[in-house]
Fold these 2 entries.
Entry 1:
Amino acid sequence: MLRTDAPPASSLAEQLPEEWEQTIHEWGEPRYRALQIFRWIHQRGVFDPGLMSDLPKRLRERLAQEGLAEPARIAETHASADGTQKLLVELADQKRVETVLIPRGSVASEDIFAVPGDDDGVVGSSHTGEVTQCVSSQVGCAMGCAFCASGIAGLKRNMSAAEIVSQVLLGRTALGDSGRLAGLVFMGMGEPLHNYAAVTRAIRLLSHPEGLGMSLRRMTVSTSGLVPEIDRLARDFQGQVQLAVSVHASDTATRSRLMPVNKKYPLPELIAAVRRYPVPRRRRLTIEYTLVRDINDSQEAARELARLLDGLRAKVNLIPMNPVAGTGLQAPDDDVVERFQRVLRDAGLDTFLRKRKGDDIAAACGQLALHGESRKVKSEFV
Ligand code: SF4
C-alpha cells in the first residue's frame, strides 16, 4: 500500500495500519491494537486517545504522551441557500483552512466534479443525498494565480496528512445523516501537488479499506500544472486518482499573466503531461477554464483551446470567475460565456458551465479563510 520510497509518517495520527503495527510492536502491545487505533481514527474520526474506550488505560496514556491528539476542529460553519456548507477548520496552531460540502442531485445542471460512477459529471436524481467535499491541502497557496484569493494571500505552510484527513472526517461528521460523502476534490485552498507527500499519504489513508475506504476513483486532484508531480501521480496511482487541470488560457502569454506557474511549466509542456496521464477506460480528465472578462474569453481563445485539447479524453469545465476584491478582474457577460461554450461544443468537446454553488457564502477558493483579513492586493490587472 505504501510505496517504499514514500516519506515516513510525520506523526502517529497519519500512520497506516502497517506502521501502527510496527509502533505497537515496539511498545510491547499486541498487534491487533494497531487496527483498533487505526479504526478509531479513520472510521470514527476520533484522534483523542482518551475517547478510545476499548483500549487499556496504559495504552491510551502512552498514545497521549506520544502526541496523538485532534489535529483540527470546526471553527465556523456557513450554510448556503443552495445546500452548500462551508466549514472553517482551525488547525492546532490556530491557522485556518476551509472545506466545502457540496450536495449533488438537487438540480439537473452540470457540475465541476468527477462523480463516482458518473463519468461526465452531470448531476441527476440518482445522486440525491450525495455530497462532494472540496478539500484544502495548504494554508494559503504559493502559486499566485491572478484570480484567486488563496493565491493573493501567499503560502503560509503545508498541511500535514493528518490535518487533511481530519478535515475530511470533520466534514463527514458535519454532514451527519443529511448526506453521504461520495467524493473528494483536492480543489480547496492550496496547490495539492505542491504538497505532494502529505496529499498522497492522505489519499492512501482515506482510501484504506480499514478506514474511510473511499475509492481512489472518487478522489480528484486538481492542479495548476506542476508537470513533474503530474507524472509522479500517474506513476504512483496508475491513473486511478482523477486528475483535473487548471488551464485557464489557450496561449502561453495569457496563461503566464494569469498563472505564474506557466513560466516554469509552459502550456505545451503541461498539455504533453496531461496527454501522458493514464486515464482508465470510461473515465476522462477534467480541464478547468476560468473565464475572465476581456482576458481569456474571446472566441479565438476558445478555438485555440479546442485545438490544444483535440483528441484528448477530457471534459471542459468553464467557470465564470468569482469576483475577488481588488484584482480588477471580472466575469464575462452571460452571452460571452455561452458563445465560448458553443465554440468548444461545436469542436466536439464536452463542455459544462460550472454552477457557482455557494456564491452567497463566498465558496470560491480561499475566500472564506480570507474573510476579515485585510490584504494588500497586488495585481497587474488592477
Ligand atoms: S487557483 Fe489554486 S493553485 Fe492558483 S493560487 Fe488559487 S489555490 Fe493556488
Entry 2:
Amino acid sequence: MFKNLMADNVLEMNIVSGFEMRQKAKRFEDEGHKIIHLELGEPDFTTPVNICQAASLAMLRGETHYAPPLGIPAFRSEIAKYVREFKGVPAEAKNVVVTPGAKPILYYTFQAFVKPGDEVVITDPGFPIYRVLTKFMGGKAVALQAKEENSFRLTLEDLVPLVNEKTKLVVLNSPNNPTGSIIEEGELRRMAEFLRDKDLIVLSDEIYDRLYFGEDRLVSIASLPGMQDKTIVLDGFSKAYAMTGWRLGYGVMHESIVKVFNPLIVASNSCTNTFIQFGGIEAYRGSQAEVEVMKEEFKARRDLLVSGLNSIPKVSCSLPDGAFYAFPNFRAFGKSSAELVDLFMEKAFISSLPGDTFGVDLDGYVRFSFATSRDNLNEALGRLESALKKVGV
Ligand SMILES: Cc1ncc(COP(=O)(O)O)c(C=O)c1O
C-alpha cells in the first residue's frame, strides 16, 4: 500500500540483517526447537555493573531532559581523552559527536558526503549498511575486495586501482565485520600515504578495535600523518562494553564536519539520551578489567569455533584477528549462501547470516557470530558436521 507515494530509494532498501534472522529463528523456537543463535553481532555478556549504576544514578538525580545535540560536554571531553590515549589521535572535545549507537555516524557521513554519481570505496566483505547507504544516496559502491588467501587482510594494491576523481568516500573497517580481519599497520601506513593528498574523506569504522586479539593496540588511520582532518572515526560502546541496547556511539572528525552533522542531528533525533551518556563517561573512566575479560573469552571462543570448523571435511575458515565473527567457506558443497543458511536452520537449528549479503561474489560463505557460550559453540559444531555429512558433496 502507498507504494506510489513512497520514495524510490526507500522502496529499494533491502537489508538481510541479524534482526530479520532472529525473527525467522523464532518460528522454529515456537515449534519447540532449541536454536543456537549465531546470527546477531551482540555480546552475550551483561553491561558492567559500574556503568549501569552511573546511568541509573544520573537518571535518579534528574538527568532526564534534553542534552546538547552533539553530546554532554563532559562526555565529549572524556571521549576526546580516550581517543588521544587509545587511538593516538590528537582530538579535542570539539571534534566529537555523540550519537544513539554508532550507526547514525554512518548515516550522517553518507548524507553529508555522497551525492548521486559519487563513488564510495567499500571494504568487501564488509558491513552491509555501507552498501545500502551508498545506494540510498544514489552513489556507486566500489568493492574493495579482501582476498581469502591473504586471510581477508586488505593491501594497498587492492585499494589503488579503485580511487579516482569520482571517489568521495573510502570506508575502512578494522577489525572487520564479517571476517574479523585487520589491516596490518604497514599496509595502513601505505594506504594513508596514498590517500592523504586525495580529495576525499575516509570513514574509519573502529567499533571492534578493543576486541583485537593481537599483542599491541591497533593503529587508527586518523593518527597517521596528514590523515586526521580527512578521517571520520566511528566508534562506540555496543561491542566492547556489551552495551548494544543502550544505543551509544560517537564519531570523531574535523570541526567543519561537526558543523554539518549538527543540523542533521537536530532534524533527526535531537540528541542522545541524557542519562545514558553518564554511563558512557563511567565506561571510559572506570575499570577496564571486564572489557579485557570479555575479550579473552571471545578469543577462546574464536579458537574453539575456527579450529572446529576447519576440522569439518571440505570447510575452511581463516582465523579472525578480532571482533566476534567467523566467515567460513562452504563452497565445496555447491550451495548458495541462502541455501546454506536455510540448511543450517532447518537441519541443525543454527541461526546464521548468508555471506553474500556482505559483498560481491561471496556465495557459499556464511557468517557465524561467536558471541555465545563455548557450550553452544561446541553443540553447534556437532550439529553442523552431521547436517553437512547428510548433504555430502
Ligand atoms: C562494522 C560495524 N559498524 C557499526 C556498527 C553499529 O554499531 P551500533 O550498534 O553501536 O550502532 C556495527 C554493528 O553491528 C558494525 O558491525
